[in-house]
Design a protein that fits this description.
Elements lengths: L1 E20 L5 E22 L4 E6 L11 H13 L3 E8 L10 H16 L6 H9 L5 H6 L2 E5 L4 E4 L8 E6 L6 H13 L10 H9 L2 H6 L2 E2 L2 H4 L5 H11 L4 E4 L6 E5 L2 H13 L3 E5 L3
Parallel strand pairs: 1-8, 3-4
Antiparallel strand pairs: 1-2, 2-4, 2-5, 5-6, 7-10, 7-11, 9-10
Helix pairs in contact: 1-2
Length: 291
């Protein structure tokens, strides 16, 4: 049985605007995603078999390891696309929290696809692998390539952007309360139903700041539509963001539909102090860098 161990990197959304709802029930998005060094370790082992079998295990006992697991679905999608019959064993050493908006499940699925592709002598190129990834989840194609990208459509149409400065320091944090993505979308729809036609935000200014390498402008133009419905008084995410701002983060924002908040710091000592304060308050908090 051949084995690979891969890093499955978390992502943050520097920008996330939810646009119109499509006929298929999904929403068009305008998002800028960036991978960070916080990651799961995903071990992928496989061998030829007469009958396909997928076994998933995880260090976090709260994560389901059945057919609903994105890594399981990724292995199945790879075999369906390739026509191969394999015995697949996957183990996820979990560091990215779930229900966080940090793309942990998508990153794990992408790692499985990349690992199986390599172990099977690269039957698919990156474009084909991303097409398979899109059948699993909207963020999975981005997690295949990583880096920094402008995502449109439901998140599957990607255009590469220059990455943030590698000198920046990131604190990713969340409380015990996760956020359901469908619930967040419903709350946003309910809010907009009470308003006149919404003015959809546009990421062009932030994208321009990335291409110019203007960190200050990038930090000033970060945006997430879901903050309107997640950051209500008393929610852990609201408290965490305030701690980050009080600790002089150069920018802080909800990631995805939440519940994780990330702070970006130009000063490493301020990032370390912020992490220490959040950990002391009982929150999950990890230091990370852009990758």
């Amino acid at each position: 049985m051949k084995t690979l161990i891969l890093k499955a990197h978390a992502k943050i959304n520097l920008f996330l605007a939810v646009h119109n709802r499509r006929a298929d029930g999904y929403h068009n998005l305008d998002s800028i995603m960036h991978t960070i060094s916080l990651c799961d370790d995903v071990s992928v082992s496989l061998s030829p078999a007469d009958t396909s079998q997928i076994i998933v295990s995880c260090s976090d006992s709260t994560i389901p390891c059945d057919e609903s697991n994105t890594a399981h679905r990724a292995a199945d999608a790879f075999m369906q696309a390739s026509g191969l019959c394999l015995d697949v064993r996957i183990h996820i050493e979990k560091r990215i929290p779930s229900r966080a908006g940090l793309g942990g499940g998508s990153a794990d699925a992408a790692a499985v696809l990349r690992g199986m592709n390599e172990l099977c002598d690269l039957p698919f190129d990156i474009k084909q692998l991303c097409e398979i990834a899109a059948t699993i989840g909207a963020d999975v194609p981005f997690c295949i390539s990583g880096g920094c990208a402008h995502a449109t459509g439901i998140g599957e149409i990607l255009s590469t952007c220059p990455p943030m400065s590698s000198e920046l320091h990131i604190v990713a944090a969340m409380g015990a309360e996760g956020v359901s993505t469908p619930d967040a979308y419903r709350a946003l729809a309910n809010l907009r139903a009470k308003q006149d036609a919404p003015l959809y935000k546009d990421s062009s200014t932030l994208r321009a700041s990335l291409f110019k390498g203007d960190t200050a402008d990038m930090l000033n133009t970060m945006h997430n539509d879901f903050e309107q419905v997640v950051l209500h008084p008393g929610h852990d995410s609201t408290k965490i963001k305030q701690v980050m701002l009080d600790c002089q983060a150069d920018g802080a924002l909800l990631s995805g539909s939440g519940a994780a908040v990330f702070g970006i710091f130009t000063c490493p000592h301020k990032a370390e102090n912020t992490q220490s304060i959040l950990l002391g308050s009982g929150y999950f908090a990890k230091l990370a860098r852009p990758v």
